[in-house]
Amino acid sequence: MNRLAIALAPLILAAGAFNAQAQDPHAGHTTPPPPRTQPVAPTADPHAGHQMPAPAAATDPHAGHVMPSARTPVTADPHAGHQMPAQPATVDPHAGHDMSTMTPAQPDPHAGHDMSNMAPAQADPHAGHDMSTMNMGPPDVPTSADNPGRPPEAPVPPAALSGPVHAADLVFGADAMTASRRTLLRENGDVRITAVIIDRLEAGFGDDDEAWLWDVQGWSGGDINRFWWKSEGEGDFDGGLEEAELQALYSRAVTPFWDVQAGVRQDFRPDGEDTTHLVLGLQGLAPYWWEVDAAAFLSMEGDLTARVEAEYDQRITQRLILQPRVEIDASASDIPELEIGSGLSSVEAGLRLRYEFRKEFAPYVGVEWTRALGDTADYIEDRGGDPEDTRFVVGLKAWF
């Protein structure tokens, strides 16, 4: 028995030492003293240099690591050179979910773009709307209902045409409202206006003579129908009146800028050779703001003549205006008693500079050149006249 106890004693002592070592992980380790030349950093790993045994399940995770020296700088990774145990996998929050119906993620079209300067996106006002039935055809333009550019229109309900043309007649009576509508028409679009325009009232000074003339016209009526009258005349300061004419015309607007005029013209001459003409003309505003007055004249003797006048106002300032003016006369036949030849009989061109003290009152100065052509020039030369003349003019333009 004693021999058995003596034989088992070494085994019992070894087992006790093994149990003690299992309780203290550092048991049996030889810890090297810190170097004398440099103290151990207070933040150094206390396990540096330890050769750790394999830990149990709940032992220190650094057990068994070969720790770096205590001289490792403070900023070094304390786990550098460690052989880390496998970490438990993070639990997937979607574990057990059926993800088969999920739409695969689309790549971001703006990936890599700098979006810092972009304005915040606006919500789409049509998001979620069904746009498949929208009419993407031509716009609803104000044309006939049969035009394919417009959607079909429902017929007018019968009740809309059952009452009087003017609903106010039911309240105030037809007689009272007829008079009111007539007044409304007259005051809003059918106004009667009268005007007198003195286009030229001037004196001309040439090499041989001094002359004067007038060119006046006026009208009375509305926007569409008017009575128009025109008068022109000229003479010499020494010899008196040479000729004058007066026109009485019916004028009707055929476009926003043009009137057709028809009427009679009466010529007056000192020698008693008065002549009456039928007139058909066109007056209005041509492109580029040229004011045009063109007319054909048929005399009682069958002589056909024509005249075209055109003038343009070029504003230099709000008050100072330069006006070029051209007048061309023509005849279909020779008229010897009036010293008029067939074809183009004369051309007159002038340039006038006026100053508008008011819109209704504007004196002017200018120059005018006149030239007789063809047989008309021959008639003038035969009586000793000059077919060409240049004059300095002074005059007045006014209206009221």
Short characterization:
This protein has 400 residues and is mainly beta. It has helices at residues 2-23, 169-172, 174-187, 374-382, and strands at 193-205, 210-221, 225-236, 240-255, 258-268, 275-286, 290-299, 304-312, 314-315, 320-331, 343-355, 361-372, 388-399.
Instruction: Note the main sheet.
Output: 12 strands, antiparallel, barrel
How many separate helices?
4
Question: What fraction of residues sit in β-strands?
Answer: 35-45%
Beta strands, count: 13
Placed side by side, the strands forming the largest sheet appear as: 1-2-3-4-5-6-7-8-10-11-12-13
Using the CA coordinates, give the radius of gyration.
57 Å
Q: What structural class do the secondary elements suggest?
A: mainly beta
Span between N and C termini?
A: 159 Å
Q: What percentage of residues falls in helices of 4 or more residues?
A: 10-25%
What is the string of helix and strand elements?
A: HHHEEEEEEEEEEEEHE
| Dominant shape | elongated
How much is the average pLDDT?
79
Stretches with pLDDT under 50, minimum 5 residues: 17-43, 68-74
Chart the SSEs and their pairings.
Elements: H1 2-23, H2 169-172, H3 174-187, E1 193-205, E2 210-221, E3 225-236, E4 240-255, E5 258-268, E6 275-286, E7 290-299, E8 304-312, E9 314-315, E10 320-331, E11 343-355, E12 361-372, H4 374-382, E13 388-399
Antiparallel strand pairs: 1-2, 1-13, 2-3, 3-4, 4-5, 5-6, 6-7, 7-8, 8-10, 9-10, 10-11, 11-12, 12-13
